[in-house]
Amino acid sequence: MRQPIKSWGNLASVDHEVATPAFREDAAPLLSTLVEKTGSVLAHGLGRSYGDSPLNGGGGLLITRRMDRCHAFDIATGVLRADAGLSLADLHVITVPRGWFVAVTPGTKFVTLGGAVANDVHGKNHHVAGSFGHHVRALGLRRSDGTLVDCAPDRNADLFHATIGGLGLTGLIEWVEIQLQAIASSDMEVENIRFDHVDRFFDLAAESLDWPYSVAWVDCLSQGASLGRGIFSRGRHAPDGPRLAQPAGAKLAVPLTPPISLINGLSLRAFNAAYYNRPSATFAGRCHFDGFFYPLDGVHHWNRVYGPSGFYQYQCVVPPAVAREAVTDLLARIAASGTGSCLVVLKNFGDVAPAGLLSFPMAGTTLALDFPNQGQRTLALMADLDRTVAAAGGRLYPAKDARMPADLFAAGYPAVADFKRHIDPAFMSDFWRRMEQAPTKSKQA
Amino acid sequence: MTGQTVVILGATSAVAERYARLHAARGARLVLAGRDSRRLGSIATDLMARGAAGAEVAVMDLAAPAAGFDAAWADMAAKLGGRVDTALLAYGILGDQKAAEADTAEMARQLTTNMTSACAWLTVAANHLERQGQGTLIAIASVAGDRGRQSNYVYGAAKGGLALFAQGMAHRFAGTKVKVLTVKPGFIDTPMTDGLAKGGPLWATPEKVAADIDRAAAKGATTLYTPWFWMGIMMIIRNLPGAIFNRMKI
């Protein structure tokens, strides 16, 4: 079925030949059909990747969300095996009441296991737990020649490491087996600490290494003496309390895309000031994990607030030796531009070896923020930020990207040559097409 | 609520599976009936991982069970130790309206699947619940059964007939501990409706419909429109004067 599909950034609506198998036995035949019809295919979960990595314009898209069944869940050991279309939200309905939680969670629960593997997602506990891929015990990879390859760290290990963070290009991830972490309660113990300059962020991060979860929100518009002021948030699973998969309370939603972006200089300045000064900026206490890990999931389709032009997300990581200078420089450039988003995230990664060949996390500091799409102006700002990232020896996150130059990708991911050997010939994405092209004109200008 | 026993007729349907998951999480024992043994097996394995105390499959063509309705039912009830707390009838086909208009055998086949066989299952199930003195019987009909329309009146007639049959049963058991619930869903995003253009506020997820059914059954309701706004929409459609209705291409 021909269907237009958008990614989370709402930048473009792209036509695909779409198939949505309900059972995993149907996936392989549909995969072949899509390849026969269009020449290429890509798996697509819940569409939370921001740019063009979840799209395959003009080609086939195999949507995995209906394949969401558990194969086995051992409540004694916390090992769970399930179809790759199972979301973390649905997984937690199964596991939280019985005392188990994913070892690593990104900032949305609307991610499938397959998506979490293909992007090797990270969370607030990277400094102690690494990325999602570190907790994958095995996975089933359907190649376009019809074979189902059982991959694990000790069998078909090369393909396993290529598939973790492999952007869905090594084949269709049919099932995933993960190790969960034991929790006593669905409550979190949380401390929020206000900081008045980005320098303080680095001090707080260093002081918080014994907290399993830490992250900071930053006011991207503040300049001068309060450059990079924000709120440092750290948390741990509470040692007692209820085990509820979902908190009580109704959900909000952004029902329609407004005709213009609701995020502009004025609203952003007002929001950031109010958010920085709100009483809970110094909150210390307990809350359900949903509010701690997934604050934005509480508002369905929050991506619509940026209006019909959509938005870019920019997420980079820079190495520890130069992190202070590089992050300060990035924040100064963003503040001077007057654009940016309400949600700016700063976090220190640990120095665990990456789980996959193209894994984004590496030792250092990561900065993530949204930019409403204002065309050339936005692209120019990001090109400016690229220079700082490249000079620092950092890299950008493909799951968030819709515009990084191919040479920045190549410089940031030295294992890419090794990775290419494992790409399935029938799998393709718009992101990968972009990376495979010769340097663009705008790059040379 | 733990330890309930549940029979699902048409267990591979998206709504039925989501409904079964709610019971599994509460530790129910389930029998899953349908045609496709491999799919039923995947679902049973999943329900066990979700906390079901038991999940057995019963492979048959529900529209025409080889053993006959009575024996097939008795066999499923026996898998649950003879006790059935809840039975959900969820199978059905959307059917091709044009094909049914052109071919009386096809028309009869659609009516048999969606209505005649369904009423047979309701009959054997209701008699079982009556003998045990309590239980809940749930039949998934459709808003399409509320008024005949040119685009799908064969499907609509079958679902409307099923709804009327279940309504009569609810009347028969009024004042007893046997509850009969007729469910009238609107558009649901499932494989069955993949041929239709989707999107927009009228479409519901199977999770939402399953949760609505679970709540209505717990309350002992006899009719459920799901999502709720279909009650208003269908009230208008039912009451539109023919002069206006006949000009609409719906």
Automatic annotation (TrEMBL), chain A:
InterPro entries membership: FAD-bd_PCMH, FAD-bd_PCMH-like_sf, FAD-bd_PCMH_sub2, Oxid_FAD_bind_N
Gene3D superfamilies to which the protein is assigned, alphabetical: 3.30.465.10
Tree of life domain: Bacteria
Protein keywords: FAD, Flavoprotein
One Pfam family hit: FAD_binding_4
GO terms for MF: D-lactate dehydrogenase (cytochrome) activity; D-lactate dehydrogenase (NAD+) activity; FAD binding
FAD-binding PCMH-type domain residues: 11-183
GO biological process, one term: lactate catabolic process
Family: Belongs to the FAD-binding oxidoreductase/transferase type 4 family.
Protein name: FAD-binding oxidoreductase
Source organism (scientific name): Nitrospirillum viridazoti CBAmc
TrEMBL record, chain B:
Keyword DNA damage tagged: no
InterPro entries linked: NAD(P)-bd_dom_sf, Sc_DH/Rdtase_CS, SDR_fam
Keywords linked to the UniProt accession: Oxidoreductase
Keyword Oxidoreductase: yes
GO-annotated molecular function: oxidoreductase activity
Annotated GO CC locations: membrane
Similarity remark: Belongs to the short-chain dehydrogenases/reductases (SDR) family.
The protein's name in its UniProt record: Short-chain dehydrogenase
